[in-house]
Amino acid sequence: MSAVTEQSLVSSVKAWFEDYIRRFSSDESLVQRNMDLKAEHTRKVCEAILDIGGSLGLSGEDLGLAEASALLHDIGRFEQFRQYRTFMDARSEDHAAIGVKVIQGSGVLDGVEPAAAEILVRVVAYHNRAALPSGENERCLFFLKLLRDADKVDIWRVVTEYYSNGGDGKRNQSIELNLPDTDRISDSVYEALMNGKLVQMADLRTLQDFKLLQIGWIYDVNFPRTFQIVREMKYLEKIRGALPQGSVRIAEIYGRARGFLELNAPSV
Ligand SMILES: [Fe+2]
Fold first, then answer.
1. How is 34-60 classified by DSSP, letter by letter?
2. The domain that contains 135 carries what CATH number?
3. How close is the Cα of 236 to the center of ligand 1, in Å?
């Protein structure tokens, strides 16, 4: 039996999280807007992970661990933006690594059963990798898959809400990664997606590439409930709607991704 029960694990991590992010509030509206974006993202990833974890019939203890991982996964984002004014890891530091340092330096997991604390630190460290790590144990991989699915579900929410408000002139360079808004699609992006593979961040050259990368996350989804959420929320359709309509390549990429989704989403 752990020293900290699953309920107190979640409530203590949640209280710590709210207290921690309060230190980053700022009078500068650009900074505050981006801090709010990440705080809201974290809360929504918690909701998504409980939804997906619930669909798998997890025990209360494991659901608590999953929710704690969601609370901590992007904790490095706050320090990253404070120091570098960007969420681009390539132009600053790996936000997952910052997160691990924050967790370890804060004592937030003091008193948590060592095996659970170890899982939390590892899934935070791995959550933004291009692929799952090799050589990790099954339990750690399971929680990592859950977190990656829940994280994607909410990033899809963030970007599709953003695209649907795109006409109001409030462009947020932190979401668009400072990429140029031209119609060009890079060959490497097209090829990866037509092979059912994820697009590498390093291959992004235009905003269209980035939107297509977001469609391609469907190839990295792990659980049936996640596919179901993507279908219910029409995330692929919404991203498609934000892309140029006449392009044959975009139609091909979208068609393949939709087919993959239908194949994998259980009907209700
Ligand atoms: Fe992250």
1. HHHHHHHHHHHHHHHHHHHHHHTT--H
2. 1.10.3210
3. 21
74 CA to centre of ligand 1 in angstroms? 4
| 74-103 pLDDT tens trace | 999 999 999 999 998 988 999 999 999 999
> Quick check: is 206 in a domain?
yes
Do 55 and 93 lie in a common domain? yes
Structure tokens at 89: 């890891």
> Same domain for 93 and 187?
no
Give the distance (Å) from ligand 1 centre to CA of residue 95: 7
The candidate with the shortest Cα–Cα distance to 188, out of 205, 171, 176, is 205
Residue 130 confidence (pLDDT): 87
With contact defined as beta carbons under 8 Å apart, do 145 and 35 qualify?
no
Separation of 178 CA from ligand 1 center, angstroms?
Answer: 18
Does the predicted model carry a pTM greater than 0.90? Answer: yes
